[in-house]
Specification:
The chain has 384 residues and is α/β, with parallel strands linked by helices. Helices cover 41% and strands 20% of the residues. It has helices at residues 65-80, 88-98, 103-121, 125-128, 148-160, 176-190, 206-219, 233-242, 256-264, 275-278, 281-294, 307-319, 365-371, 375-383; strands at 7-24, 29-42, 47-53, 136-138, 141-143, 166-170, 195-199, 223-225, 246-249, 270-273, 297-300, 346-347, 350-352. Strand 8, helix 8 and strand 9 form a beta-alpha-beta unit. Helix 1 packs across helix 2 (88-98), helix 2 runs antiparallel to helix 3 and helix 6 runs parallel beside helix 7 (206-219). The longest helix has 19 residues, at 103-121. Bound molecules: [(2S)-5-oxo-2,5-dihydrofuran-2-yl]acetic acid and manganese (II) ion. Residues 25, 55, 142, 144, 199, 201, 250, 301-302, 304, 328 line the site of [(2S)-5-oxo-2,5-dihydrofuran-2-yl]acetic acid (MUC).
């Protein structure tokens, strides 16, 4: 007889949190972030938590917080409730057999399953993934206030506080000359020693990219992220072949299959891997393995997850055998408030990896009640 604990319930909750400042990307300006929080309760009384986020609703990709919640409530939860809670691979294969796409919903649920399994076994999630290669992860910061003077002040304060020493600039929403002047102003303000990268978020056509990358190389930018449209892989390949500066695929690389296709074409020097675009922690490691095999550098990307999603990603990138380009797991720091008891710890330019069983993050239930989008209907339910 199988006596393994089973999945008792899976709940997906939308939570809206304000950001500390406007965050400007080529396709949207964020003033808040929506977290889809998953709570997965098991028959042995343990609860796992997971999270998925998007950027600007549907502005960045084709899954929204609302569609993630709907996929979990309507499809993933009914498939999993009553099944073995301890066999994460079997559970996710069951989901894969009946649910196409929806990588964000899959990722949020897989995180919760790994969290609860880690608690059950007394092991941190990174141990379930094969063990951590590093106990802390370098984290860059994105300068995206839209104002160069403010960006320089922000970066200098962060270097002084020993929180970040590498900075990513969001460009692509202005004419090229303006964007280049913006990067130049920040380079002047920070000096030649500070490592700068840029993210174009697909905004350029190939002709603009050729001019733009040449100018950015001259300014001493170290990495150019997704300069052209996600689906324009041939242009990405030509740019990677043409320039010495590292070209990173972000929106173009979701999972191991994308990683393989891009590697076959030598279309990028580095991949930004993101847990929700890959479809979970294991799928991210599988994409990382392809990158490793192809000699492509790995960068721990973010979709500006909150504390739960960022720590889940930290467990993966800590377990990845290589991580040549560090991470951008700063999402929790962009949020004015949080829904966890203890926020992730950033120290000496690095995010510290939790070493306790599971993810090592606990929900603050009062804060969750306050920030959840359906709080009005919840209050009615409590008083009724
Ligand atoms: O990289 C992206 O495209 C998304 C995201 C990550 C950091 C940031 O500021 O935006
Ligand atoms: Mn990017």
């Amino acid at each position: 007889m199988n006596t393994s604990p089973t999945i008792h319930s899976i709940e997906a909750i939308l939570v809206d949190l304000p950001t500390i400042r406007a965050h400007k990307l080529a396709m949207t300006t964020m003033m808040r972030q929506t977290l889809v929080i998953v709570r997965l309760v098991c028959s042995d009384g343990l609860t796992g938590i997971g999270e998925a986020t998007t950027i600007g609703g549907l502005a960045y990709g084709d899954q929204s917080p609302e569609s993630i919640k709907s996929a979990i409530d309507t499809y993933l939860a009914p498939l999993l409730v009553g099944t073995d809670a301890t066999r994460v691979n079997v559970a996710m294969q069951r989901v894969a057999a009946s649910v196409q796409g929806n990588s964000f919903a899959k990722s949020a649920v897989e995180i919760a399953l790994l969290d609860v399994q880690g608690q059950r076994l007394g092991l941190p999630v990174h141990a379930l993934l094969g063990g951590a290669m590093r106990s802390a992860l370098p984290v860059l910061w994105t300068l995206a206030s839209g104002d160069a003077t403010r960006d320089v002040d922000e970066a200098l304060a962060l270097i002084e506080a020993r929180r970040h020493k590498v900075f990513k600039l969001k460009i692509g929403s202005h004419p090229l000359a303006e964007d280049i002047a913006h990067v130049q102003a920040i380079r002047r303000g920070l000096g030649d020693e500070v490592m700068l990268t840029v993210d174009v978020n697909q905004a350029w056509d190939e002709t603009t990219a050729v001019q733009g990358i040449a100018a950015l190389e001259a300014i001493g930018v170290s990495l150019i992220e997704q300069p052209v449209a996600r689906r324009n892989r041939r242009a990405l390949k030509r740019l990677a072949a043409r320039f010495d500066v590292a070209i990173m695929a972000d929106e173009a690389v979701h999972d191991a299959i994308d990683a393989f296709d891009l590697a076959t074409d030598a279309a990028a020097d580095v991949y930004a891997l993101k847990i929700s675009q890959a479809g979970g922690l294991w799928p991210t490691l599988r994409a990382a393995a392809v990158a490793d095999a192809a000699g492509v550098g790995i960068y721990g990307g973010t979709l500006l997850e909150g504390s739960i999603g960022s720590i889940a990603a930290a467990h993966v990138f800590a377990a990845s055998p290589t991580l040549a380009w560090g991470t951008e797991l700063f999402g929790p720091l962009l949020l004015k408030d949080d829904i966890v008891v203890q926020r992730p710890e950033y120290r000496d330019f690095e995010l510290q990896l939790p070493q306790v069983p599971g993810l090592g993050v606990q929900l603050d239930l009062d804060k969750l009640a306050y920030y959840r989008r359906d709080r009005a209907s919840q209050a009615v339910a409590v008083t009724a």
